[in-house]
Amino acid sequence: MDTVVKSMLDEDPEDEKKGLVIFGRDVSKIPCFRESFMYGIASGVGVGLISFLKTSKPLMSQHIGVGTFAISTLVTWSYCRYQWSKQKFDAQLLQEALKDKIRYEGSAVEKDLENKGVLKSV
To answer: How many angstroms separate the Cα of 23 from the Cα of each of 20, 26, 27, 36, 46?
Structure first.
C-alpha cells in the first residue's frame, strides 16, 4: 500500500509515540527520513571500510565514508521525497475526481460530460 494512502488511513492519534525531536519537529513524522538515513549510514560505513581495506589510510577512509554517507543520503532523500510528492499529488487528483463523480452522478451535467468524453461511466 502506498505511503500516502497509509497516512490518510491513520485515524488513531492517541497511539502516537514520542520520536526524536530536532528543532521542535518530530523527525519520525517526516516522510522518507528513516529510509534515507539508513541507506546513507549503511553505504557510508560500507564504502569507508572497503576503502580502508584497500588503502590502509584511516583518515582518507573516514573522509570517503562521510562523503559517501552525505551523498547517498541526499540522493535517496531527494528521490524518495519526489516519489512521495508525486503519490500525494495523484491521490489528491483522484480524490477530487471521485468527489466530482459523486456530485454529478445522476444529473444532466453527468450526461453532458459523458457525451463530451470527460467522464467515463464505470
So the answer is: 10, 8, 10, 19, 30
